[in-house]
Amino acid sequence: MQRGVIELTDTASHTGTVTARYAGRRVERIEDSRLLTGHGSFVDDISRPGMLHACFVRSPFARARIRGIDASAALDLPGVHAVFTAADLNPDVREAWHAVAGKDIPDTPRPPLAEAEVRFVGDPLALVIAESRYLAEDAVELVDVDYEPLPAVADFTRAVGGSAAGAPVVHDAYPDNVAGGMGGAPPDEDTFSGAAHVASAHVYQQIHAPVPIETRGMVVDWQAASGDLTIWASTQTPHELRAFAARLLGIPAQRVRVIMRDTGGGFGQKVVPMREDMCVLLAARRVSAPLKWIEDRRENLMTAGQARHVDGDVRMAFDEDGAILAADIDFLQDVGAYPTPYPVLTTAAIGMFFPGPYRVPKASFNYKTVFSNTAGLAAYRGPWQYETLTREILLDIAARQMGLDPLELRRRNILRGDEMPYFNPNGMPYDHVAPADTLEQAVKILDHEGFRTMQAEALAQGRYLGLGYSAYIEPTGAATGHLASEGATIRMESTGKINVYVNGGSTGNSIETTVVQLTADALGADIADVATIQGDTAVTPYGAGTQGSRSGPMTAGAVHEAGTILRRQIVAMAAAMLGVEETAVELSGSKALVREDPGTSVSFADLAYRAYYEPQQLPPGMSASLEATARFTSPPTAPIHWANATHACTCEVDVETGHVTLTRYIVSEDVGPMINPNVVEGQIAGGTVQGIGGALLEQMSYDEDGNPLSSTFVDYLLPTATEVPPIEYGHVEIPGPGVGGYKGCGEGGAIGSTPAVINAINDALAPLGATITTLPASPAAIIEAIEQAAN
């Protein structure tokens, strides 16, 4: 299903018309040849002469006072160069704010190394520098720390109120353990009390984490003589890391270079530099050689940040026909000990987006972000996902209360394309979307009525099948602050080949492939003639990197801006060489040709030869430049590119064992025209699998004393191919407001999948009267719900 036409011509000058040859095609990923043959280059592949290695001394207590640190035994170990504590590194911090929040927004505490008190198991309190990681780990064991254990609070729902409620205080500056909060309009209790139907639910989502295949890491090379700092990093935002390092150390940004090569996943965890990154940057200026830190898996699970940990109450009021009258959400979010970055405003998205893709006349929300003695909150793919989880679970509960099929209740309330633009009751301006279209496409692919027939037949045989839907709408390419613009440089080399330079942040999202497709189309070049250079701040324009599902729409805008400038220059040179007017020139197949006489042409190679080696033969006053740099800035009239999707999941639940088998999984999405359908579907699949893991398996658990119980993959369970059925795709293409109509697709899979799976399980359990609203839906949880319903 497609709406709209993408214009690729240069409408400003009507010159250099090009035909889209690559955008929209399933071009094979250019990254794959090196990655699949083992020729990728990751941070741990970097080796510098004389390089030293860093390893952290981490707290074994969730909360304790640091009475003293004796590093003498560690320093006596041959090969150990230094042991740094907070007293050594922390005073060197100049500025430590993140661009995603801005320098003027008050932040929560975030010291590089723990000062006076440790606040979660894994809290770094010293940094050992040695000639190898092996030696550094041995030395860590020799650092003698005198701890005075203190009471800790790992359960954030018990932390609210702090000492007044008898709970330990995580930070003295926050005696009630509340980092902050926000409330929208108060609930309209008259609407709820007078409604024909009111549904409510208490929904708890467990902690789970991004778990990238490559853990965090960096290599830092400080050259004291020149004052130059070079950083190789596993990051989603090389330019922000560069700016952060300059601010942190108080050195000029032009002396800092960040190189990001291949990065094995990020999912939000690598958007902003964390405390360990700060420590390595600070320590690098105190040692005599380059410094490497590579996080191991146990550290990653214990300390790299938690996500999704929310507990709340939701309710909806409906009229007698099932139309939504009001929606309300009241929740707590766990932000751990050291959230990154300031968590209060980002959590607001849960409340703001709670009405979702539905016709909701009134909405209210209230929330608090709460400190606990656990790892800090970090970004994770669709960090506001709890709004979709709770809303979609609640809609199924409401439908069963009203005796309706959950599909029918959604159909009565979901927004249509002819209702756009539409402002949700919290002021979110939806446009260029038609959520009803993705819903109906998913229903058609599934064969809803056919499944219901099969489900009834299975139940008669004692088998429990279920179907769950989940619909959402999400902002992509959100143009606020430093996220609002992106740069690109496009250069035709002396051979006629083309390089496009962009910020990068490529962490598996295939931005290399898509930017090459876009550039080839922008200039009418053969795709084989285009390459890209990314992730090196010394040569690429500033950009905000991979976050907020922004790479597609923002990079497309930047390539369009730079491509328009360069295309005009190519056309001007070609017209002079061909002896025709510029309006007669067309670019195609890496050639400039006369539109009415295609046999008359000049190749890009010949144009480049003239520009580089015979510039004196160009007409007087004509520039010999075949390079353009430009920045795309989202207009304030179109700051958000709204994407939406409907997920449909079917399953079978073994009511004797609690085991869930997913039988079909369907995603109908609208991310606008697809630059590369393979990439879009890959992004959807990756996020969907993460959401399935969150629904069924993944859980970062702590005991009452704050000890982590899932610090290895033996305890922290991830989905594998055996848990995930083949994913079926449907595409609705409604162009967005930006260049090419493109929208982001990085986060939707992870947003929509968890509630679809939970709803499928609850649909299967409906004949038994059981409902899961506490995640994950493990076999034990399912059996407990069945037993409770029976009693």
Automatic annotation (TrEMBL):
Highest taxon, organism lineage: Bacteria
InterPro entries (alphabetical): Ald_Oxase/Xan_DH_a/b, Ald_Oxase/Xan_DH_a/b_sf, Ald_Oxase/xanthine_DH-like, AldOxase/xan_DH_MoCoBD1, AldOxase/xan_DH_MoCoBD2, AldOxase/xan_DH_Mopterin-bd_sf
Residue ranges annotated for the Aldehyde oxidase/xanthine dehydrogenase a/b hammerhead domain, each copy included: 37-151
Pfam name, any one: Ald_Xan_dh_C
Keyword Oxidoreductase: yes
Name of the featured protein: Xanthine dehydrogenase
GO molecular function ontology, one term from the record: oxidoreductase activity
Keywords: Molybdenum, Oxidoreductase
Cofactor(s) listed in the protein's UniProt record: Mo-molybdopterin cytosine dinucleotide
Organism in which the protein naturally occurs: Mycolicibacterium poriferae
